[in-house]
Automatic annotation (TrEMBL):
It holds the Pfam family TPR_19. This is Uncharacterized protein. The keyword Lyase does not apply. It comes from Alkalicoccus urumqiensis. PANTHER family: LIPOPOLYSACCHARIDE ASSEMBLY PROTEIN B, TPR REPEAT-CONTAINING PROTEIN PA4667. SUPFAM superfamilies: TPR-like.
Length: 419
């Protein structure tokens, strides 16, 4: 590599961007074509895509048979939002050109990003038909099917790519991708084997998370804890790991460790609803009711649409027979137009306990509109309707209970069907 360009790159890497770019400009003025190609890649990596494309187009004019230059220019066009130009250029790269595989992969990514999945798949399969032993294409197909959620297909192509042998320096690890596909397909033991293999060479944060998550599914909690800890040592801001690590500690009944992990996670991501909800469940389970309730309130304040948190709070208040808190929470949710038949069930009970029988009956109507096959709810409805003087509706609710369970003698007696 040109010595001055090496010096420019070092300046940029050390934070002296302006000086490094100025030196790069000087180098380009008198550089040979190989140096210009390196400078173009440098510009691309730095996000100076216009400058990268300018150099690429100059080189393409001189070397019209070098497909790798056209593939590189296509990447520039894609980054600049000029997708049609990129498509035309990539489609023109001959299958005899060494850049043909790269062009097919870029085409597939481009079509997939446009929602044209079938076209993307066709491009990859056409290329593989012409080059059946090309491991990079097999890897590309595995990636395509993994993104589409076709995990068995993805695993099949990843295995072929690994067996075929792949060049070094690829941006993805095929073993880790195969492990991800197996884990998503529920083949956890196979997934763990490939995670172990992939992590030997590429101990990435995503790899450690996948290994830990899969171990969690296998109920190998200690391995999960070890994996998530390694991940967080590597990247403390990988905030989804705190929730998963908390689950592993909770499963092992490591209460103090779980609490510490969740607290740290919340400090790093104060808007992570899952962490607040886990903390609430931990505290409520340990009998720290006031603090647990406060964490539930924080979740709901962050996101009134979090049904899990709302229901957890409603069940908690109901268990405490704190009907005013139930009604206050539901009034808060009304302001956000949050509706759920389960909420109406709690509203009906709370209003009934607060002697607002008419309001309870209206809430019960809303609950039954979507939960008419809930036997216990129908019995609650019958009681409320009867108290509100709606005897016919009360009888209808009891009849529906009998339809669900004809052997209920207590309901038969209430309806006068038996003595």
């Amino acid at each position: 590599m040109n010595e001055k360009l090496q010096e420019a790159i070092k300046k940029i890497e050390n934070g002296y961007h302006e000086e490094g770019l100025e030196l790069t400009e000087e180098v380009i003025k008198e550089a040979d074509d190989e140096t210009k190609r390196t400078a173009a890649e440098l510009y691309f990596e730095l996000g100076l895509v216009d400058k990268a494309l300018e150099l690429a187009e100059e080189l393409m004019f001189r070397y019209p048979d070098h497909g790798e230059l056209f593939a590189f220019a296509s990447e520039c066009y894609i980054e600049l939002g000029k997708e049609e130009e990129a498509l035309d250029m990539l489609n023109d790269i001959s299958e005899k050109d060494p850049a043909y595989v790269q062009a097919r992969l870029l085409l597939a990514d481009l079509y997939e990003s446009q929602g044209l999945e079938e076209v993307a798949e066709t491009k990859l399969l056409e290329a593989l038909k012409k080059l059946p032993e090309e491991a990079v294409l097999q890897l590309g197909l595995g990636e395509f099917y993994l993104n589409r959620g076709d995990y068995q297909q993805a695993a099949s192509y990843f295995k072929r790519a690994i067996h075929q042998g792949l060049p070094e320096g690829l941006p993805i690890d095929p073993n880790l991708r195969l492990a991800e596909a197996y884990s998503a397909a529920g083949q956890f033991e196979d997934a763990l084997d490939y995670y172990r293999e992939g992590l030997k060479e590429n101990p990435t944060a995503d790899g450690w998370f996948g290994f830990g998550y899969t171990s969690l599914q296998m109920e190998d909690y200690q391995t999960a804890v070890d994996s998530f800890n390694k991940l967080l040592e590597q990247d403390p801001d990988y905030t989804t790991a705190y929730s998963a690590l908390g689950k592993a500690h909770l499963a092992m009944k490591n209460w103090d460790e779980a609490r510490e992990v969740l607290q740290e996670g919340i400090q790093r991501d104060e808007f992570n609803e899952e962490l607040y909800l886990q903390m609430a469940e931990l505290l409520l389970g340990r009998g720290e009711l006031e603090e647990g309730r406060d964490f539930l309130k924080r979740v709901i304040a962050l996101n009134p649409s979090n049904v899990s948190a709302v229901q957890e709070a409603l069940y908690f208040y109901d268990d405490q027979e704190d009907y005013e808190e139930i009604l206050e929470l539901l009034r808060f949710l009304d302001d956000y137009n949050e509706f759920d038949p389960v909420y109406e069930r709690f509203r009906a009970k709370a209003l009934f306990e607060e002697d607002d029988v008419s309001g309870a009956a209206q809430a019960m109507d809303a609950a039954l509109s979507q939960m008419s096959h809930d036997e216990r709810l129908l019995e609650e409805a019958a009681e409320i309707y009867a108290a509100n003087g709606q005897r016919e509706k009360a009888a209808d609710a009891l009849k529906q209970v009998l339809e669900l369970d004809p052997e209920r003698e207590d309901i038969q007696r209430k309806l006068g069907y038996s003595e």
